Amino acid sequence: MTTPLLDMRVEAKCYGERTVLAHTEVQIAPGEVVSLVGPSGCGKSTLLKIAAGLDAGYRGEVRMDGAPQRAPSPRIGVIFQEPRLLPWLTIADNVGFAAGPQGGRDPRVATLLEEVGLAPHAQALPKSLSGGMAQRAALARGLFGQPDLLLLDEPFSAVDAITRMRLQTLLLTLVHRHHSAALLITHDLDEALYLSDRVLLMAAGPGRIVEQHRIGADHPRRRGDPALASLKERMIEHLESAQLA
Amino acid sequence: MAVDDTLPLLHDTYGSARNPAQNSMGERQHGAEAISMPAAAPVRAPVPAPVPSARDHLRLWRHAGLILPLAVLALVEALVRSGIIPDHLLPAPSTIAQTLWQMGLARVLRHVLTSTFRVGLGFAVGAALAALLGAAMGLSRRLEALLEPSFQALRAIPSLAWVPILLLWMGIDEAPKITLIAIGAFFPIHLAVVAGMRDVDRKLVELGAVYRLSAYALFRRILLPAALPQIFTGLRTGLSLAWMFMVAAELIAATRGLGYMLSDGRETGRPDLVFGAILLLAVLGKLSDGGMRWLEYRVLSWRDSYDPSGPGPGAR
Questions:
Q1: What mean pLDDT do residues A38-42 have?
Q2: How far apart are the C-alpha atoms of B89 and B85, rounded to whole Å?
Q3: Global confidence as pTM
Q4: Which of A162, A177, A213, B23 is the most buried (most CB within 10 A)?
């Protein structure tokens, strides 16, 4: 692979005495969708925070296009587990937050709201939106800065199953349309298999990447595809043996 | 009513025979139909009938709440006139009204405006200082650690204890009165601003970091709006304390104002004057708190919280 878009090498990340990440490396190519799957407490979210530049207290290095980076960058969009919309701003102003207090008027906001199906709710307040709608607004906000990389921290874990599938499909459409790469943290193997070009399996204590799988299947993928199902079984076996080790 | 407007439409869509229940049960009925008749979907999706708003639901009680004080006044009037309550202790409301009328609009207004002006100025000064200091302490943990013990001690001083000091330092002009009122308003607002800033969700601050907000932008765009609900609670408490401290200030040294009216009435043995002042204070306090609530409602309409005037568990 030529220079990766994101190249992160974390030698160690500790909270006090406890080492949460050790010798963890993640490379992401431009436009690539990578999932990070692992049990809770294995340091997935910590890894994402380091990639986002929100946590500089680690040993190692993060590079974007070869340039070292230790602070949040406009080239990276972050989507959290909960929508994290500012309740006093309209949906439009939330989406255009990066463009300043009048961000909602930016023409790109209207386009993005159209893409995530929230155009009729541009002037609504977050309190009137359902969980799925709010997360779509958060997706639009994450894409507003035309980032090269989207970081997503279990973004669909708090919505119901049907909404989750719709959001997954939407995410895939948006990522492909905006030519953005994505690093998705999830504990849902099906989600990882449906969305990713590559799945990284993490184990805990200390957190590290134990295996990776490249998934060649074309999009749109069929949920419940036998090939994906057998891959899933192998991953589960691997995760379980890694837990025991 | 809005419910009645939508019902006929839904009847036409689904046939009236299937919808025997109406009005109060309307919403639930429509929901059940939507499931039982999916084929009707292309015609018109069933719009849930708007829940009758809480305002309607509570209208009777709201009106009763306004009438209650008038009813109490009427009762007092009757008790005094029939001689059950001696009128040198509690004058009849009609006597109080007459007294105020005889004083003349100009004199009453002068007292009212003087007091209102003092409260307004004192509150403004106190609130401004509280907002400034509170924001500084809310933003800087060092500053809070440095100043909080002193503020705790200052807060503990009863209002009346300030009076002799202020009279000693500032004489008996407007200055000590305004200062006393400002002190009264300061503490609850200061407390609310510090707590409001302190309680802002860490996750929202993290969002500010993702968008690389400067310290000022973080304050202006995230911390301040997030703290506003608490700040407003402080402002309302501060305003009511400002009225209280105004009376304390005017009771001691004043030649006009409602506090002066109170002490004047006591010294000249005129309960009608005292009660006149008390009634005016009640009305002014109610008006100013109402104004503040209206402002709060407008500014904080984004809040997604339990609305005490909204439909309760039994309202639907």
A1: 83
A2: 8
A3: 0.78
A4: A213
Residue A1 resides in a domain: no
Alpha helix (H) residue ranges in B82-104 = 93-103
CATH of the domain at A89: 3.40.50.300
- Is any Cβ of chain A less than 8 angstroms from the Cβ of B207? yes
A11, amino acid identity = E
Q: DSSP code of A207?
A: B
The per-residue pLDDT for range A212-228, each reduced to its tens digit, is 889 888 888 888 888 88
Q: Do the domain assignments include residue A180?
A: yes
Q: Please report the sign of the dihedral spanned by the C-alpha atoms of residue A195, residue A198, residue A199, residue A200.
A: negative
Confidence grade of residue A84 (pLDDT, cut at 50, 70, 90) = very high
Sign of CA dihedral B304, B58, B298, B232: negative
Q: Give the whole-angstrom CA distance, residue B199 versus residue B230.
A: 9
Note whether B210 contacts A: Cβ–Cβ < 8 A: yes
Write out chain A residues lying below 8 Å of B210, CB-based.
Answer: 52, 54, 72, 78
Which residues of chain B are modeled with pLDDT < 70? Answer: 1-56, 306-316
Is residue A50 assigned to a domain?
A: yes
Chain B nearest-CA residue for A91? B302
Three-state DSSP state, B247: helix
Domain that holds residue A41: 6-241
Give the residue on A whose Cα is nearest the Cα of B226.
Answer: A88
- From chain A, the residues in CB contact with B221 under 8 A are 101
A 80-99 residues with CB below 8 A of B? 80, 82, 84, 86-89, 97-98
Domain tally for chain A?
A: 1
Say if the Cβ atoms of A54 and B209 lie within 8 Å: yes
Please tell me what DSSP assigns to residue B270: -
CB contact under 8 A, A125 and B211: no
The CA distance from A51 to B67, in Å, is: 63
Whether A84 is covered by a domain: the verdict is: yes
A72·B210 Cβ contact <8 A: yes
CB contact under 8 A, A87 and B304: yes
Q: Is the peptide bond before B86 cis (omega within 30 degrees of 0)?
A: no
What one-character DSSP code corresponds to residue B222? I
A227 near B CB under 8 A: no
Q: HEC profile for A122-183?
A: CCCCHHHCCHHHHHHHHHHHHHHCCCCEEEEECCCCCCCHHHHHHHHHHHHHHHHHCCCEEE
Residue A8 structure tokens:
């992160």
pLDDT reported for residue B47? 56
